[in-house]
Amino acid sequence: MNRASNVPSSATTDRSEETMSTGTGSGADLSVAAKRIQRELVEITMDPPCNCSAGPKGDNLFEWVATILGPPDTPYAGGVFFLDITFPREYPFKAPQVVFRTRIYHCNINSQGQICLDTLKDNWSPALTISKVLLSICSLLTDANPHDPLVGSIAKEYLTNRRKHDETAREWTRRYAR
User: Fold this and answer.
1) CATH number of residue 74's parent domain
2) Which domain holds residue 122?
3) For residues 81 and 120, is the Cβ–Cβ distance under 8 A?
4) Considering the domain boundaries, does residue 15 fall inside one?
5) In a domain, 166, yes or no
6) Are 55 and 41 in contact (CB under 8 A)?
7) Going edge to edge, which strands form the sheet with 52-56?
8) Helices (H) and strands (E) in the chain — how many of each?
9) Which residues form the active site (predicted)?
């Protein structure tokens, strides 16, 4: 434990305290990606985004699990949604892969958990962090984008019968996210 910050030693960038694997199987110096991910781990541990948490699944710094609490005043309120995050070796120059592991009824998230979010695709920038990505996903839960859907039938229902859409989304949240 780093006493100055109350952050686990494995989350610091002090080389003498490195304990997390970079997934390469070697003890070589940390890559640019690993250094950036470690820095983001410290930041998200000390100042997590509202209703979100994230960190490594085990000792592999490149594989994380995240938790998002369903935003209030949405059909997802009261739900706890789990996501897997995989950082590529080219991070932050290439976007992380983020997928929902909890089933969710949403036009921008398909049955495999893939997310239609421009910042994870064409609009990715190295200036973005995983905290900002999680906030963007929370925003998507608050305001879906039915004009760029992954699931056309849910988008159509969202646009033409919002009450039915929200009832179904609430039911899925009760069934799968509690």
Assistant:
1) 3.10.110.10
2) 49-176
3) no
4) no
5) yes
6) yes
7) 52-56, 63-69, 80-86, 97-100
8) 4, 4
9) 116 (glycyl thioester intermediate)
Could you give the residue ranges of the DSSP H alpha helices within the chain?
Answer: 32-46, 130-142, 152-160, 162-176
Total-model pTM: 0.84
Burial of 135 (0-12, 13-18, 19+ CB in 10 A): middle
**Rounded to 10 degrees, what is the CA torsion of 113, 115, 121, 122?**
150
Q: Indicate the Cα dihedral angle 101, 53, 77, 162, nearest 10°.
A: -60
What's the gap between Cα 94 and its chain centre? 15
Structural domain count, the chain: 1
Residue 29 lies in a domain: no
Does residue 34 belong to any structural domain of this protein?
no
Residues classed as catalytic = 116
The C-alpha atoms of residue 154 and residue 108 are separated, in whole angstroms, by 9
pLDDT tens digits for 113-171? 999 999 999 999 999 999 999 999 999 999 999 999 999 999 999 999 999 999 999 99
117: phi then psi, degrees, rounded to nearest 5: -140, 120
